[in-house]
Structure formats: structure tokens, C-alpha cells
UniProtKB/TrEMBL annotation:
One of its GO terms (molecular function) is glutarate-semialdehyde dehydrogenase (NADP+) activity. Belongs to the aldehyde dehydrogenase family. This is Succinate-semialdehyde dehydrogenase/glutarate-semialdehyde dehydrogenase. The active site is at E255. The lineage of its organism: Bacteria, Bacillati, Actinomycetota, Actinomycetes, Mycobacteriales. Pfam families: Aldedh. Coiled coil: none annotated.
């Protein structure tokens, strides 16, 4: 589809109760490759949030009572619908978020998979039945849908961060209101339309784009009818939302920031480690919570690893994500370019060397080149803070204990990557790494069939796998006599 036709086909109103509604005002969505306006989107208010919750509550009981097989079949149709429209969704995502089309296509496949996976989980919501140990009765345990949920998603994966929540919520029988990031609401609005076409009952999903996330969120969180908040975004906002949710004791899931270590041991296959490093660092242009944020490399192989990584990083072609010749698109906005620039200059001022890249080319657009920093000192901010850009800082270590200690020296605990050819070492280190997920000799770990999530200040709760649906189910104990 031509770009103008594609944008014209996206609903730009509020999506409430399965219909598009106009709002009293709009806000602009920009293309990060040139900062031009792509579309003006309806700007939800607190009153719109209440209307969306009214719509969710009106159908919650009926949706929870819908046969699991039927819910599963609707989710499967959504999977097929997304797959049919993969090229359009990918192009739209690239336009509003910046990443290259190949990355967007990868996200469409990954994001759709949550509907296929959870279409299969919808029919496997089981309970249990046991005699009471004292012989005094019987214990029946059932699972029930939590109820209306509110999902807040970030801009870096405009589709998948939503589908990872919607798939399990709808499979469990919950309704959901999604508030996409203000930078990237178009993908979620198009998805809402496709889900309607695929047969999702009206009211089960509402989508509220807004330039005022605080007001919309407060209206929902403070309304006694909401049962759950699921958030993906920065640790700071996540902490504030957990505090805010305490008043109504909402169930919460928090997928927050990361600072993933990528550890290369002296017995690693260095070429494989460089391949994995490119994936772990450059997936999504470096704007991923699972992105390798710092490379801890055994000193005996550090020079070889650095040289080979520099060669591969210098092969990226920076350009508009929609241009097929580009292999690295712009960052999402100028603020992100400023953050990355600041982290690189801090590291350099403390003694790091720029081996490739390191200078933003300037406007138009929010570009930053693939960059490698060598000899990064331990006190550089870039080793402690989330970069969210295509910069690979390398630092060395000698012993296994030192490598593990350096990797764990962070308040975050989302993902970690370990390269070694020793199975013993791989398992030993995986046990000792403080993170929710560990990749062994691989640079991409996300899989709809696996539990995704963090520990420490990277949050709690799991998305995907058989664990994912539990976030949307309450456990009920029914006590029976003999
Ligand atoms: P962000 O926290 O600024 O925004 C995330 C979402 O929260 C957006 O929708 C935003 O509108 C909303 N928001 C902001 N202030 C709010 C408030 N006061 N009340 C309610 N909602 C509010 O994060 P971001 O910059 O959009 O995304 C990047 C962050 O997300 C990074 O830290 C990244 O690591 C994290 N992330 C985590 C995961 C994961 O699964 N752990 C996945 C992707 C991104």
C-alpha cells in the first residue's frame, strides 16, 4: 500500500467500545527520520478513560464467560489478520518509530506470535482437586479472569509490547484498555481495527492515545472497577505507578528498564560472540530493554573481540528506516540522541576510546551511528545507565568471579548474555547472574513461548510462556465437604 493510503487507513480517533470516537483535541505523531508530522491523533482525557472503562465493564462478564475455545479462535484469527497485513503494519511502525523495515517485520512476526501462542493457552486454564490432608473435606481450586485491565506500553516496540499483554489477557477472559506511547500510537490503533475485523467483541479492547498519560492513568487507577495495571516502560515511571496502584491494591505487572551485560569468557568462540553481539546490541537499533548495554570481555580475547566487532559495526548504513538500503534507522527523537551523546562524552572524558562512530551527524532526523567504545572505565555512566542506542561499550575482566561480579554490579536485572564453550561454566554463571533471563551463546532470547521478565529494579511479572496467562488469572479456593 502507498504510504499516504496506509496512513489514511489508520483510525486516528480514540478507539472505545470497538468504535472510533473523536476527541476534543489532537496531538501530532512525528516521523523520527525527518520530524515531519505523520498524523494528528485524538488526545484522550480522563473522561474518555472512564468511557473506555465503562465499555470494558459492560462486556467483562460476558467475555469471561465466552467459551475458551471461542476466545482462542478469535485470537488465532487476529494472528492471521496481522500476518496477512504484515507489510503494512511494518511500514507504519517504521514511519512512526524509525527502525528499519526489516526490524519492523521481525517485530510484526514476534508480536503476532503472542496471539497464536495464547490462542493455544486459552483452552488450558486448569485448576485442581485434592482431598484435604486431614480427611475433613475436599479442596477445589479454580482460575478466574482478573477483570478489566489497563496496559501502558512504550514506543520502542509499538506492536509487540501491546500484544504481549493483550494475548494473555484476552485468552484469560479479561478486557483491556491500552494506552500506547504518545510517540507511536498509530500501530496500536491499526491493530485495534484489525482485531475488530477479526471478530473481537466490541468493548473487550479500547485504545486511548493521549499526550497526558498521567491524567488518563490516574482516572483509571483510581476508579474502583479496574482490577489490574500492566506496564512496560522505564523504571522511574514504573515505580510511581506501583505506588499509585497501592491505594486500590491493584494487581500489577512491571516490565521495566534493563542494563544487560554481555559476557565473553576466554573459552568463547569469538566469531560466534561477535555475531551474537551484533544481534544483542543492534536489534531494534539498540532501543530495546534487552539490548546488550555493556560488553564484559575476558582480557585474553578482548583485542580480537573489539577488532571484529568494530569491523561489523562499521558496516551499518545509517538512513531512513523506510529506505531498503538502510540497515540502521534514526533514534525515536532528539531527546534520545542527546542522551546517547551525553553518555558517550562522559565515557570519553573518563578515558574511553571511540573505535568507530561516536558523532551524531545532525539534522534533519534523529540519527546516531553504530558506535564502539573501547577501554571503558568502571566509573563511566554508560556502564550503569540504559543507553537505548547503537553504542557498544567494551570493558575487560580477568577471572570468572570478576566477570560475574561486574555483570551483577547494577540495580537492574532483566537480560544477560554469556558466551563460553564450557557447559559447566555456562550453567554455573547462568545460576549466579542476577537477571530474569540469560542467553547462552545466543544474542536474541525473546520468544512468545518463554517467560519474559526481570528481577531487581527491572520489575516483576512474566509475559509469554505458560506463565504469562497467570498474570491475568485469580486463584479461587472452593472448600467442599466429603
Ligand atoms: P516511559 O516510562 O517514559 O514511558 C512508557 C509509557 O509510560 C508510555 O506509554 C508513557 O506515555 C507512559 N507514561 C509516562 N509517564 C506516565 C505517567 N506519569 N503515568 C502513566 N503513564 C506514563 O518509557 P519509554 O521511554 O517509552 O520506553 C523506554 C523504557 O521502556 C526503557 O526504560 C526500556 O527499558 C523500557 N522497556 C522495558 C521492556 C521490558 O519488557 N522490560 C520492554 C520495552 C521497553
Amino acid at each position: 500500500m502507498a504510504i499516504e493510503d496506509l496512513i489514511a487507513s489508520v483510525p486516528t480517533g480514540l478507539w472505545i467500545g470497538g468504535e472510533e470516537r473523536q476527541a476534543t483535541s489532537t496531538f501530532d505523531v512525528l516521523d523520527p527520520s525527518d520530524d515531519q508530522v505523520l498524523a494528528a491523533v485524538a488526545d484522550a482525557t480522563a473522561a474518555d478513560a472512564v468511557a473506555a472503562l465503562d465499555a470494558a465493564c459492560a462486556v467483562q462478564a460476558e467475555w469471561a464467560a465466552t467459551a475458551p475455545r471461542k476466545r482462542g479462535e478469535i485470537l488465532r484469527s487476529v494472528f492471521e489478520k496481522i500476518t496477512e497485513r504484515a507489510d503494512d503494519i511494518a511500514a507504519l511502525m517504521t514511519l512512526e518509530m524509525g527502525k528499519v523495515v526489516a526490524e519492523s517485520k521481525g517485530e510484526v512476526a514476534y508480536g503476532a506470535e503472542f496471539f497464536r501462542w495464547f490462542s493455544e493457552e486459552a483452552v488450558r486454564i486448569a485448576g485442581r482437586y485434592t482431598p484435604a490432608p486431614a480427611g475433613t473435606g475436599r479442596i477445589l481450586v479454580t482460575k478466574q479472569a482478573v477483570g478489566p485491565c489497563y496496559a501502558i506500553t512504550p514506543w520502542n516496540f509499538p506492536l509487540a509490547m501491546g500484544t504481549r499483554k493483550m494475548g494473555p489477557a484476552f485468552a484469560a477472559g479479561c478486557t483491556m484498555i491500552v494506552k500506547p506511547a504518545q510517540e507511536t500510537p498509530l500501530t496500536m490503533l491499526l491493530l485495534a481495527k484489525l482485531m475488530d475485523e477479526a471478530g473481537l467483541p466490541k468493548g473487550v479492547l479500547s485504545v486511548l492515545p493521549t499526550s497526558n498519560p498521567g491524567a488518563v492513568s490516574t482516572a483509571l487507577i483510581d476508579d474502583g472497577r479496574l482490577r489490574k495495571l500492566t506496564f512496560t516502560g522505564s523504571t522511574g515511571v514504573g515505580k510511581a505507578l506501583v505506588k499509585q496502584s497501592a491505594d486500590k491494591l491493584l494487581r500489577t505487572s512491571m516490565e521495566l528498564g534493563g542494563n544487560a551485560p554481555f559476557i565473553v569468557f576466554d573459552d568463547a568462540d569469538v566469531d560466534a560472540a561477535v555475531d551474537g553481539a551484533i544481534l544483542a546490541k543492534m536489534r531494534n537499533g539498540g532501543e530495546a530493554c534487552t539490548a546488550a548495554n555493556r560488553f564484559h570481555v575476558a582480557n585474553s580475547v578482548r583485542e580480537e573481540f573489539t577488532e571484529k566487532l568494530v569491523k561489523r559495526m562499521s558496516e551499518f548504513t545509517l538512513g531512513k528506516g523506510i529506505d531498503p538500503a538502510s540497515t540502521l534507522g534514526p533514534l525515536v527523537n532528539s531527546k534520545q540522541v542527546a542522551t546517547v551523546t551525553e553518555l558517550v562524552s562522559d565515557a570519553v572524558s573518563k578515558g574511553a576510546t571511540v573505535a568507530v562512530g561516536g558523532v551524531a551527524p545532525g539534522g534533519p532526523g534523529n540519527f546516531y551511528p553504530a558506535t564502539v567504545l573501547a577501554d571503558v572505565p568502571a566509573d563511566a555512566r554508560i556502564l550503569k545507565e540504559e543507553i537505548f542506542g547503537p553504542v557498544a561499550p567494551i570493558t575487560g575482566f580477568d577471572t570468572e568471579d570478576e566477570g560475574v561480579a561486574a555483570a551483577n554490579n547494577t540495580e537492574y536485572g532483566l537480560a544477560a548474555y554469556v558466551y563460553t564453550q564450557s557447559l559447566d561454566r555456562a550453567l554455573r554463571v547462568a545460576d549466579r547472574i542476577e537477571s530474569g533471563m540469560v542467553g547462552i551463546n545466543r544474542g536474541v532470547i525473546s520468544d512468545a513461548a518463554a517467560p519474559f521478565g526481570g528481577i531487581k529494579e527491572s520489575g516483576f511479572g512474566r509475559e509469554g510462556g505458560s506463565e504469562g496467562i497467570e498474570e491475568y488469572l485469580d486463584t479461587k479456593y472452593i472448600a467442599l465437604t466429603n
